[in-house]
Design goal:
2 copies of one chain form a homodimer.
Chain A lengths: L15 H4 L4 E5 L8 H11 L5 E5 L5 E2 L2 E2 L13 E4 L6 H11 L3 E4 L9 H17 L2 E3 L5 E4 L4 E2 L12 E5 L3 H4 L2 H5 L5 E6 L8 H10 L5 E6 L5 H11 L5 E5 L4 H11 L6 H11 L2 E3 L2 H13 L8 E5 L2 H13 L9 H8 L12 E2 L7 H13 L5 E5 L4 H15 L3 H8 L4 H10 L3 E4 L7 H9 L3 E2 L2 H18 L13 H8 L8 H10 L7 E4 L2 H11 L3 E5 L13 E5 L2 H14 L5 E5 L6 E7 L7 E6 L4 H4 L2 E5 L4 H10 L17 H17 L5 E10 L2 E4 L2 E4 L1
Parallel strand pairs in A: 1-2, 1-5, 5-6, 6-7, 10-11, 10-12, 12-13, 13-14, 15-16, 15-17, 17-18, 18-19
Antiparallel strand pairs in A: 3-4, 8-9, 8-11, 20-23, 21-22, 21-23, 24-25, 24-27, 25-26, 27-28, 27-29
Helix pairs in contact in A: 3-4, 7-8, 8-10, 11-19, 12-19, 14-17, 15-16, 20-21, 22-23, 25-26
Chain lengths: ~725, ~725
């Protein structure tokens, strides 16, 4: 099935190509009782337009709602492309076995009661997996809500699909976000291409789905609801590839205590900390959103409209409040609202009331002639080369008429139909405009589908929202994707392991790693550290200090001591032999016989931290942030998954909120970012080369003469 | 009209009591053309149920839609309680004059074209104000959309009101948020008590409206859309009073770049307008929201439901995803989801499927029996003493049936009515439950008003949202108000001016304030500074250093030099006579003849900053934040309006993100918060006492022995 598609997408052997487009389905769990879940799903398949063969299995009933049923799996005339199981949990293994025996290669397990309920369910799930492996069956679920493919069509969920096929595809760890939202999205003009409820992901997971949807030519934007990514490394690889051609939007909710707890009992998901997902999404080029509403509004916008090709937005409105609110959201998201040229303003002024504004926002104020907003002005704005996208607030027609009808009818006895007709706006021009000008338009008005104008936008696929902030937010999603597509991406840098590092790890570091050894390893990766000499006694410390040059720092150096500063085992800025000698004596009084580390005193005001963290279920992460003793409180840090490319490292550096410090701050000179990026890339390499090292904490890294120098280093094995 | 109401609310002479409840209205600008704004407003008044007298003025028409019209204002049989003007701008002054002459005392000016369009309009507006003053007329507008009082009823806007009277009142600087949202709020079960579009606020402003609504017994929650508060000091006073009894929610959107730039110099930029509003709202006990949607959802929730009396929330759901999303929002907002007691869990378990969770969230998973969610379980949960509020996701009935109808009908030939009937849930129990148990319930499901269950919640005033995150966010609004009502508030501390401070200001500080003088003033307010001596030459510097005790800091001290560190005019940690002498020589080489300030070297690792900023249109603000040379980048600071109470000061200190540093951080000992609070209160006093001092910047304030000591101080006159 390997074939080349548009834009060089290679279609893989991904099992979802068959699962999402089977030509025959056998369902176990449907009956003639319409209030049962399996029956509802069966009815949705049969009456939802599926053109392939549907073969229900039922021990007693011969016909299920007009379709021939089979008593046993082995009675089936052919092996179905897809087996669908909606039966009590304990029956699943034997049925999988039977489907395997007749040669079925794809399954969908709806039933719950597996690893999400604890030990026993976990065992059962393992059993199912092993049966599937034996027969080469690939399956979605268990504990899921099924699949939707509007282009086939096929809908295996309990909720009927009302719409024509669309271009938004959803992957969800919650079945609800596939099956309960069908009315919600219909009411907002959003149409599925595909939707997949992945459940416990015992076999097929989010990553498989992402790969499949990346290859699916009918999918234009992908949304993912995530409680946990089980294969983050593969996710990163696949997502990086997919976002080159289509936008991916994700909501992750497992990042705090409450969310993680709730997710565990839901799909047995082990959630990771929020910052890891931030880093992962950033690195992958996935747009992170905070709510399910945003998943749908963002994918709808990204999937329907021409892409934004710059950051210049115009606002057209009949009301100042919504325009100000939209402007505020645009500003927060890095978009600009340029003042229109004098020429363009003159043209606009000739059309609008005297007290109205032509600058941008173009604000008509209260105005009864809708054609200005639906044709003349949008065309003028979008056809100019001054703006890249347009937000409009206030196009409304029959919604308003409906509302006003009782009053109008009482006053002038107009019939409702006539009033509605009177108010129905001609939208022909604006409905074509985004595609004619190849620029996005997003609409806001306070009406819902009771308004003809709103419905027309819904039908045409022009995103239309019921609040100005949402429209502006949707525009910012287009901008985020513009930035992602224009991001420079370099190759991942994975060096070979330095011989010397291996030697140190096998010798000095064999039983734990002290600060001196840690820095020795760093130096084999060309990471700059302060100059330092390890000595045993105060006499040699004085000699070492002379070699290094005053002032110096003296520390205890031992694998056992973790918090040296708090234990008074660090003396800084020592300027004379006497000071060094005295400091060494004091240290060795507290930490008996501890070796002494004599270090160059690095002076600089800017302190950063970098490190490696390993989180269960994740590849090693490289962390970067503000350093010093207050690092924990400021907590201004970010992560990327190792190994890093140089562009990952640059992006990591710029991800911290106070990255301004790295510039020519207060005349300190700009930090050598290339050096810092190389340091982070090297850290990523160490993490990959030495899985034994559980954690690395370089804090502080002090900037001296614009270069980063590691001053303290903690390795934990 | 001064009378005592419930809860000790004193009713004032606020003109809105009459404006919102007139017994007669004269409107100028209505005609027999129904497409004119004035006519629409007239029709809304007449057909919206207003029971008082309506007297249109029209030069030619004798009858306007069945109502007798008058040719001139002076022809009116009585002076109307309220004059309403919807006429070309230039006619307003003469008409105000005429209404004044016949004795009308209240007006509503809808017409636009005043100060919002520039100089000429500004002049006209001034003229209107002066006429109003002459006749004692109080008025709303100009450039507004009118008023709504559903309890009278009276609706002067262009949009008809569809609903019964409610308890949410809105004050808006955008007419749209009063007139265009009527269908929007109707569709969501939100009902106005009052709504006021304030327009240009030439006379009556937000603050008057807030006072009025505070006194209005029919208003239970107040929402404000703000682009600018014209009387912040009064706003603070009134809001503080109002929030004791009813919640106030505000959206402020004026904090954009352009707005922030104007009127702010140098460190004024540190306190951008957005910060000021954050501080003002925090101090006033006003809940800040980000969108118009939140204004409505928050006021609806706060106005309708019993108040939250703690932070323990239960989630009841038939779907894990929404539960996880809700849990995540609760957590972010400081709410808790306690695991239910074993006893309660046992009771729940006996009712729900085996694989379902009883912990919290209580997750039924897919379940067809709605009565568990609409009666048994909510009652059990709310009647327990284990939780304070309940979130429910997944109650839905006919919306689902409508959606499923085509499939059901194809399969079993059921009629639509029968299916709808079959699915209609009995909600009697849950609809009473919040008031029976005196605890809030908030609902989430993906259906809108097409669902009978959703509509029932709307009608009853139980907030019901179309996304789980919104429901959880609404619950957090109840919690925010709980915290506001339980906040300790102490009296504002405004001392008398120290004699010594007056003396310094009149003598040393007469032509500008150098660092030494600045700190002298601080000390008169009992603010601790480093010990310091001002000298003229290096010789005296050495003597001074001996007096203070080594190590010392030497700085140039001059009104002219603002950035001493960058100019190399500060030498720290000097330990010997020679070092001091040499430093002084170097300083006086750069800053010729500058006096020298010899200061005690304060040692401490925690650095804060405090200051005073004056922003146009605002009372002075006291600022507090993280100090040191990176203060600008971390930008972790907050403000309060001066003068401060001690509780304001405590709240200010705790407002910064990294307030953890003030605790016993890394064994540094907890900062003496009382001392820090006193310092901030004193700063507020200085700001009030000396309006001449434009700006104060104390940075750093170093913590030594747990006490704050001001080390550097900049006063700008």
């Amino acid at each position: 099935m390997n074939q080349k598609l548009d834009k060089g997408i290679i279609m893989t052997q991904n099992p979802l190509h068959k699962i999402m487009s089977p030509s025959s389905i056998s369902i176990v769990g449907a009956s003639n009782n319409p209030m049962k879940m399996g029956t509802m799903q069966f009815l949705n398949i049969v009456h939802g337009g599926f053109k392939g063969k549907v073969m229900p299995i039922h021990p007693k009933e011969k016909i299920i709602f007009g379709i021939e049923a089979f008593a046993n799996i082995k009675d089936l005339p052919v092996a179905p492309d897809l087996a669908m199981l909606v039966v009590p949990t304990h029956l699943i293994p034997s049925m999988m076995e039977e489907f395997g025996q007749i040669g079925t290669k794809h399954a969908l397990i709806i039933s719950a009661g597996f690893k999400e309920v604890g030990k026993e369910g976990e065992e059962l799930e393992k059993q199912v997996i092993s049966i599937a492996r034996k027969y080469g069956i690939r399956f979605v679920g268990p504990n899921c809500m099924g699949l939707i493919n509007t282009h086939l069509p096929l809908n295996t969920t309990v909720g009927p699909v009302q719409d024509l096929c669309g271009n938004v595809s959803i992957i969800s760890q919650s079945g609800t976000y596939v099956a309960q939202v069908l009315s919600y999205i219909h009411n907002r003009g959003i149409r599925f291409s595909k939707a997949i409820s992945v459940g416990n992901e015992a076999d097929i997971d989010i990553v498989d789905c992402l790969e499949y949807l990346g290859e699916d030519t009918e999918t234009k934007a992908i949304g993912i609801y995530i409680e946990c990514i089980r294969r983050p490394e593969k996710f990163l690889e696949i997502a990086r590839n997919v976002v080159k051609n289509k936008p991916v939007v994700a909501q992750y909710v497992g990042g705090n205590k409450a969310g993680a707890k709730s997710g565990l009992s839901h799909t047995g998901a082990l959630a990771g900390p929020d910052y890891i997902y931030d880093g992962l999404f950033e690195q992958a080029g996935v747009i992170r959103v905070k709510t399910i509403e945003e998943i749908y509004s963002a994918t709808h916008t990204l999937g329907s409209l021409p892409r934004l090709k710059g950051k210049r937005i115009a606002i057209l409105t009949n009301s100042g409040g919504p325009a100000t609110a939209m402007a505020s959201v645009l500003d927060e998201n890095g978009l600009e609202m340029p003042e229109l040229s004098i020429d363009l303003q003159e043209k606009i002024k000739s059309l609008i009331p005297g007290h109205a504004s032509s600058k941008n926002p173009v604000d008509l104020t209260f105005h009864m002639d809708m054609s200005l907003m639906t044709d003349t002005l949008p065309t003028m704005l979008l056809e100019s080369d001054e703006i890249d996208g347009l937000l409009i607030h206030g196009i409304m027609d029959t919604g308003w008429a409906e509302l006003a009808f009782p009053v109008f009818s009482a006053a002038i006895g107009l019939k409702k139909e006539d009033l509605i007709k009177l108010f129905t706006t001609n939208l022909n021009a604006i409905l074509e405009l985004p595609w004619k000008t190849n620029k996005p338009i997003i609409i806001s008005s306070f009406f819902d589908k009771e308004d003809h104008a709103k419905c027309s936008f819904y039908e045409k696929g022009i995103p239309a929202f019921n609040a100005p902030e949402k429209a502006a937010k949707a525009m910012s999603m287009l901008y985020k994707y513009y930035l992602i597509q224009n991001k420079e991406i370099s190759k991942i840098e994975l060096s070979s392991i330095p011989e010397r590092a291996i030697a140190i790890m096998n010798k000095e570091a064999i039983n734990g790693i002290d600060e001196y050894t840690a820095k020795s390893i760093l130096r084999t990766y060309n990471i700059s550290t302060c100059k330092e000499i390890l000595v045993k006694n105060p006499q040699n410390a004085v000699l070492a200090s002379k070699t290094i040059g005053y002032p110096v720092v003296v520390k205890a150096c031992s694998k056992e001591i973790k918090h040296k500063t708090e234990a008074k085992l660090v003396h800084i800025n020592l300027k004379t032999d006497e000071e060094v000698f005295e400091a060494c004596v004091k240290i060795q009084k507290i930490a008996k016989n501890s070796p002494l580390l004599i270090c160059e005193m690095i002076k600089g005001e800017r302190e950063f931290m970098a490190g490696i963290a390993r989180v269960q279920g994740f590849p090693p992460c490289v962390m970067f942030g503000i350093g010093g003793i207050f690092a924990e409180v400021f907590c201004d840090r970010a992560i990327r998954i190792a190994p890093l490319s140089l562009s990952d490292a640059y992006s990591l550096i710029h991800s911290i909120k106070s990255h301004e410090i790295l510039g020519n701050y207060r005349g300190m000179g700009a930090v050598d970012i290339y050096e810092m990026a190389k340091l982070l890339v090297a850290l990523g390499n160490i993490a990959v080369h030495f899985p034994d090292i559980k954690e690395i904490d370089l804090n502080p890294i002090i900037i001296q003469n614009r270069k980063p120098i590691v001053v303290d280093s903690l390795f934990i094995k």
